[in-house]
Amino acid sequence: MLEELKQKVFEANLLLPRNNLVVLTWGNVSEIDRESNLVVIKPSGVSYEKLRPEMMVVVNEKGEVVEGNLKPSVDTPTHLELYRQFKDIGGVAHTHSTWATIWAQAGRSIPCLGGTHADHFADEIPCTRALTKKEAESNMELNTGKVIVEAFKNLDYHEIPAVLEAFHGPFTWGKDSLEAVQNSIVLEEVAKMSYFTLELNPHAVMPEEIIKVRYLRKHGAQAYYGQSITL
Ligand SMILES: [Zn+2]
């Protein structure tokens, strides 16, 4: 079942340690097959060295295992909530990458301070509110998804495919699992750069109009960056 997707999600998961975004068993990547509404996700607590494509777990929209002998990632309910609410995303990635997690632990959104950020994300990367005691004690992973969706009430999740969960870490998404991981890689670079930028100049502010021009150069109907043909 979904063998090609399992291979793809397996490879997407391996990109996390390869890009220094996770250590030990931390992090997880998933992708949804929108036709069957089934999600392929990393098994819980398996090291990346031992991970194999056939170990990927297939779950349905309720989080029930449809195929696989291993338990799915504990963060599966967060992924499922994002697939339910962000209706056209195809992949989700979660890491505890150091710099993004530092911002999440500080409870701070990452402001857009330069072209690296604006080329990729249209605005600051929001940090969610903290979970309440009740939300943490019951269905914490589902409630994590809900506070992420809440943070995007007035934001476009296409333009900002990343979030920081307060006191936890980053989640990113994209059209598929590979794009979700790519967004995690960019987010980590941006988190690091923004930290040091504010160290050097706590008053650094990028003008709104430049953010907009840089973002639209690569995204949207009038984008002109890159090639118009597939290489
Ligand atoms: Zn986590």
Descriptive account of the structure:
- It contains 8 helices and 7 strands.
- With 231 residues, the chain is an alpha+beta fold.
- The protein has a single domain, classed as 3-Layer(aba) Sandwich (L-fuculose-1-phosphate Aldolase).
- The protein has a 7-stranded antiparallel sheet with strand order 4-3-2-1-5-7-6, with helices on both faces.
- Helix 1 packs parallel to helix 7, helix 2 runs parallel beside helix 6 and helix 3 crosses helix 7.
- The longest helix has 24 residues.
- The protein is globular, with a radius of gyration of 17 Å.
- The two termini are 31 Å apart.
- The structure holds zinc ion (ZN).
- Zinc ion (ZN) binds next to loops.
Quick tags:
single chain, 231 residues, alpha+beta, L-fuculose-1-phosphate Aldolase, seven-stranded antiparallel sheet, 8 helices, 39% helix, 13% strand, binds zinc ion
Mean pLDDT, as a whole number?
95
Structural class: alpha+beta
Task: Tell me the name of the CATH homologous superfamily.
Answer: Class II aldolase/adducin N-terminal domain
Strand order of the largest sheet: 4-3-2-1-5-7-6
Major pleated sheet? 7 strands, antiparallel
Number of helices: 8
Tell me the distance between the termini: 31 Å
Shape: globular
Unreliable residue runs:
none
Please give the CATH class: Alpha Beta
The proportion of strand residues reads 5-15%
Helix coverage percent = 25-40%
- How many domain modules? 1
